[in-house]
Amino acid sequence: MGRYDIRDRIAALDPERDHLEIYQLSSGREFPWDYTRALEFALFRTYCVPSISKLLTATGEFRERPQRRYDDTALLMAEMAAHGYDSERGRDALKVVNRAHGRYAISNDDMLYVLSTFVYDPIDWISRFGWRPLHPHEKSAAFHYYRAVGHRMGIKDIPDSYDEFADFKATFERRHFVFSPTNHEVGTYTVELFAAWFPAPLRPAVRLGVRGMLDDRMLTAFGFDPAPSWVGALATAGLKSRARALRFFPPRRESVLGRPKHSRTYPGYPAGYQPSDLGAPPPPADLPAEHLRSSRQGQGNIDMP
Fold first, then answer.
1. Is the preceding omega at residue 305 within 30 degrees of 0, hence cis?
2. What are phi and psi of 57, to 5 degrees?
3. Measured distance CA(268)–CA(265) in Å, rounded
4. pLDDT tens digits, 182-210
5. DSSP-derived secondary structure for 234-300
6. Residue 279 Rama label (left phi>0; alpha psi -120 to 50; beta)
7. How much is the CA Rg of the chain, to the nearest whole Å?
């Protein structure tokens, strides 16, 4: 198999009709490490929105269980990608996601924005650091894949086109990326989570490196001091060197999607686990009513699909 055979296979598929297959090939065989890193930063990016960080702070999820929340999100999204959102495991994963979100008073625009980061942040990351450019079909398929997931989550008013959704994301960030104390709190917990994955002597460098990867708008919204310019330059150079080296690697013959991975919260997942075993606990008893979905709001996306 040649290095670009999977890309050529993707080019022969229809990005709307075959979006799941294209997304599986792109995220599971061509760029699995890049998708993982990009989606980590995509979630990080959403914490720049005060309405999102305020809810996360109120639930205590990042204060009490940051690793579990990370693992739950990663594993549930992986279940959908590996097996398909309409498979038995994919539908079960969607139900867990919907029930977790359906307990809270989350605006449709906030949900729509989070969905948009899952489409465009990996595209932006791979455009900068991927070992090859994404084929246009990969970009379009990512849009159609997450649009289908979003519909099954009960998210309304998802734009009909790739460019329209990208415009929504850019406009939302211009309007809503502003500093708040809860942004800073959740952002700090997240940086500490990333640092905790490394031995203690390396953690100060990890904290600095994360700040070096954030753009000015994110730094302002989190209230973080910028890292020295050389930190971002060094990280960028390292990632681009990695990309150049990968061009000479043989293509991945099997997808990593759905394979057992090391999970700090669930050792040995997926053996012995079902998607229904994952997900956030019920809201804390003292959570202010403003954060809870009222009966007048209906059940929304709780029981979908």
1. yes
2. -65, -40
3. 10
4. 999 999 999 999 999 999 999 999 999 99
5. HHHHHHHHHHHHHTTSPPPSS--TTS----SSSTTTTTT--GGG-SPPPPPTT--GGGBPPGGG--T
6. left
7. 19
Residue 37: both structure tokens together: 């890193």
Dig out the tokens for 286 from the structure.
């003292």
Closest CA to 113 of 136, 146, 86: 146
Amino acid at 193: L
Identify the CA nearest to 118 among candidates 144, 89, 88, 92: 144
The pLDDT tens digits of the residues spanning 78-114 come to 999 999 999 999 999 999 999 888 888 899 999 999 9
Mean pLDDT of residues grouped by 10 in the chain (305 residues)? 94 98 98 94 95 92 84 90 95 92 89 97 97 98 98 96 98 97 96 94 95 96 96 95 96 85 76 80 76 56 46
How remote is the C-alpha of 43 from its chain's centroid? 5
Euclidean distance between CA atoms 197 and 203, whole angstroms: 8
Predicted pLDDT at 283? 75
Q: Which amino acid is at 143?
A: F
Q: Are 257 and 28 in contact (CB under 8 A)?
A: yes
